[in-house]
């Protein structure tokens, strides 16, 4: 009789434990789907600041210039999933073979990169400002965090070369997610030889590192449940969007880069923490320079010290591009 009671208790315990783990897994799956919608599905994000440019901002002249500047509407199809991608091409005032390709940030678009386009246009460059997949006028139902986008930007480079000739000279510039995209591009063998240098501003080390950081910052999640939540989110992203958050690594990509790269980061960046710039800076094999802008928050190095920002870019390009 005692053995029977013990067996019954063990059976009840195992059944309860099984139900508990089932509910726990179901709960994590539900949380993963929720965070997929928050982090990967394009749309309005409550945690992002208003991106309107005030008249007193150093960004304002470039913002106004872009609206009336001569521009051409370019389109192309993505290689693997046949999404329609859109960009604006702004020719320099004087004919030149020098072109900068600019990558915007998370939930940004080509118009928001107007102040940066203005910097390069004043230096005499042609400017190409694409909308990344899932942003602006480009098609896509997910944010690529730079990983699938890297191949789109390489295709944009080839479009510029097709239009302007084989003796084109290109640079790539990006801010935030665009900075990470720039670094991810740098590790690809298919980058055309006409691409001479990279400039990245406040890009993250990897998509998984950034998601982990934001889960901690915005939702105050400790190591558990961030693990296994982030791996579950990465798995959902792999199934729905075709890429892994862990594979989307700027750090791994810059280790394969041998071309000049300028790294820019604000010293008060809490969104993509300043500490992320050091591993990627140390990892690249090419000529490099690091600019830390004192007191600059995320993606605000130019606004914080526009003179230093432009001077550093010009000095870098004078040394490695011309």
Your description of this structure?
- By secondary structure, the chain is an alpha/beta fold.
- It contains 11 helices and 8 strands.
- The protein is globular, with a radius of gyration of 23 Å.
- The longest helix is centred in the first third of the chain and has 38 residues, at 2-39.
- Helix 1 (2-39) packs across helix 7 and helix 4 (147-164) crosses helix 5 (177-186).
How far the N terminus sits from the C terminus, by CA atoms, comes to 90 Å
Counting H and I runs of at least 4 residues, what is the number of helices? 11
Strand content is 15-25%
Could you tell me the radius of gyration in angstroms?
23 Å
The side-by-side strand order for the widest beta sheet comes to 1-2-4-3-5-6-7-8
Overall pLDDT: 91
Largest sheet: 8 strands, mixed
Q: What structural class do helix, strand and pairing data support? A: alpha/beta
Order of helices and strands: HHEEEHEHEHEHHHEHEHH
Would you count the extended β strands for me? 8
Specify the overall morphology: globular
Detail the poorly predicted runs. 20-24
Query: Which percent bin holds the helix content?
Result: 40-55%
Secondary structure elements and pairings:
Elements: H1 2-39, H2 60-68, E1 72-77, E2 84-90, E3 98-103, H3 114-122, E4 126-131, H4 147-164, E5 169-175, H5 177-186, E6 195-201, H6 207-219, H7 223-241, H8 250-254, E7 261-266, H9 277-283, E8 288-293, H10 301-304, H11 306-320
Helix pairs in contact: 1-7, 2-3, 4-5, 6-7
């Amino acid at each position: 009789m005692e053995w029977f009671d013990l067996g019954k208790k063990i059976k009840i315990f195992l059944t309860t434990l099984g139900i508990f783990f089932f509910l726990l897994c179901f709960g994590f799956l539900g949380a993963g789907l929720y965070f997929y919608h928050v982090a990967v599905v394009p749309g309005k994000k409550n945690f992002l600041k208003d991106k309107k440019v005030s008249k007193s901002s150093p960004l304002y002249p470039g913002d106004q210039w872009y609206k009336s500047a001569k521009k051409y509407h370019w389109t192309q199809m993505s290689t693997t999933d046949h999404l329609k991608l859109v960009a604006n091409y702004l020719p320099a005032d004087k004919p030149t073979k020098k072109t900068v390709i600019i990558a915007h940030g998370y939930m940004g678009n080509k118009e928001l990169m107007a102040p940066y386009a203005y910097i390069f246009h004043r230096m005499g460059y042609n400017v190409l400002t694409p909308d990344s997949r899932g942003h602006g006028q480009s098609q896509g139902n997910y944010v690529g965090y730079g990983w699938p986008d890297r191949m789109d930007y390489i295709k944009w480079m080839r479009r510029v070369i097709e239009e302007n000739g084989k003796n084109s000279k290109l640079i790539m510039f990006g801010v935030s997610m665009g900075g990470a995209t720039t670094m991810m591009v740098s590790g690809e063998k298919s980058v055309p030889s006409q691409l001479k240098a990279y400039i990245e501003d406040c890009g993250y080390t990897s998509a998984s590192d950034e998601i982990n950081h934001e889960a901690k910052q915005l939702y105050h999640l400790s190591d558990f449940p961030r693990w296994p939540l982030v791996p579950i989110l990465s798995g959902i992203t792999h199934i729905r969007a075709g890429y892994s958050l862990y594979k989307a690594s700027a750090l791994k990509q810059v280790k394969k880069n041998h071309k000049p790269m300028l790294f820019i980061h604000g010293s008060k960046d809490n969104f993509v923490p300043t500490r992320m710039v050091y591993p990627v800076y140390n990892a690249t094999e090419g000529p490099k320079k690091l600019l830390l802008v004192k007191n600059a928050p995320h993606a605000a190095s130019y606004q914080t010290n526009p003179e230093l920002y432009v001077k550093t870019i010009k000095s870098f390009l004078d040394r490695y591009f011309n």
